[in-house]
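Example record

One chain of 187 residues, shown exactly as stored in the release files.
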Amino acid sequence: MTKVFGWCARCAEMIAATLLAAIFVTFILGIVFRYAPFLEPIGWSVVLISLLWVWLIFFGCAFIVRDRDHVTFDVLYVAAPRPVRKVFAVLTAVLMIAVVLWSLPAIWDSVFANRLMDLKKIQTLRVPVTGGKIAIKWLFAPFVMLMCVVVLRYSWRLYTTLRFGPPGTETDDLTTSATMPGDRDEH
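Predicted structure tokens for this chain:
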């Protein structure tokens, strides 16, 4: 199972790196086309960069950023004994799942079932194969993806908390690594 998670993490990082590379190449193209005397400026570069940036942020938050990478205010959690931490973790997971599931139908309708989102198009971008304009809903689609992944992540956290206990803290990691022989660099 660890191999599968590792492979999925590497694939997600590769997709994010590809999005970042596409942003960079588009940015360079925009500069070249703007300042080269023999080329006509391209108007779609800024819009494409914005679209890719939104996708990169939400994709990265959904699949790459770990729970430990988020800023947390965990003073009460760290100060609490382990059984209370388990209650905190379970309540947090249940609350997050409930709130996201409650809001997901409205968000889905706003993005995918809203006729205006289909009618409004990004004016300067076209689909390469068909040449049609891109509907504005695809700018907001990664948020829906993030919401679905949040439900999955907190469902997994709920399962692991109920089965194995509350998640550890950075303080726990530091005290564990400080007491483990061979973890210190001895010079």
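Notes: The radius of gyration is 22 Å.
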